């Protein structure tokens, strides 16, 4: 089983996940230096005060440059995670990706395509329902630069988060608790709390944490039910990339030269609850039918045997030779 891949590494222990997390956080912090340096250089050159809050930092430089420099830190973190797994945990990177022998790209692109289609449809519908709330922000050259940056780096950002939470920490908490519900809950709460300093929280209030924690739960359920993070990787990449290309606003964490700019006053309400309580359950239903998920209670809340062998972690997957897709039995 995917969540128990950490049990396969001889001598693995929970304290190593604490050390590994510190290393990844340190690498991410180092990766933020280019942004800080660029802001400092501009503040000196233009004799401006150095911005002291996140909102000011996000608007101090050109939005494309800011986005590029923000995303660099995730590349540092992902590289650090690779070395942590290799040298501290003695694990292969594929073991925090999937319980299948190799990455299932069909799963990734199905989730990416599905959520891309839904995002485009919802954005177009919102524009036609309330056109007064939107400004057409499209500028060919800045948008082209945004697209290049986004396609190159946003998947790195989203993949880093998925590998850390739905892969690395999920397996670490499983090693600690010997069950599945605790890793699912802990990674979802931590994932949500890490967004607490986003500008959206300041604008909309703490109720938006329902969305962030709920999204973490949704992505965690995908990983546990599907025995890998391919679906989570695809969904998360589509959510950030397509969302960033389509719509921006003055108060979101990503400031972009997107096609539309939302001028409406943010308010937490049905928009926060709709994804968590309606859209995400529908997506889970679609995925469950396509990939024939079974034994929900066991996969989400069951215990993990102490005497796992290498073969045990793969026993729940069987590949269809005709289409290469894994069906959970």
TrEMBL record:
UniProt record, GO biological process: CAAX-box protein maturation
Coiled coil start-end: none
Keyword Transmembrane: yes
Domain of life: Bacteria
Keyword Aminoacyl-tRNA synthetase: no
Domain CAAX prenyl protease 2/Lysostaphin resistance protein A-like: 147-242
PANTHER family referenced in this protein's UniProt entry, alphabetically: MEMBRANE-ASSOCIATED PROTEASE-RELATED (PTHR39430), PROTEASE (PTHR39430:SF1)
Annotated protein name in UniProt: CAAX prenyl protease 2/Lysostaphin resistance protein A-like domain-containing protein
Organism this protein belongs to: Flavobacterium lindanitolerans
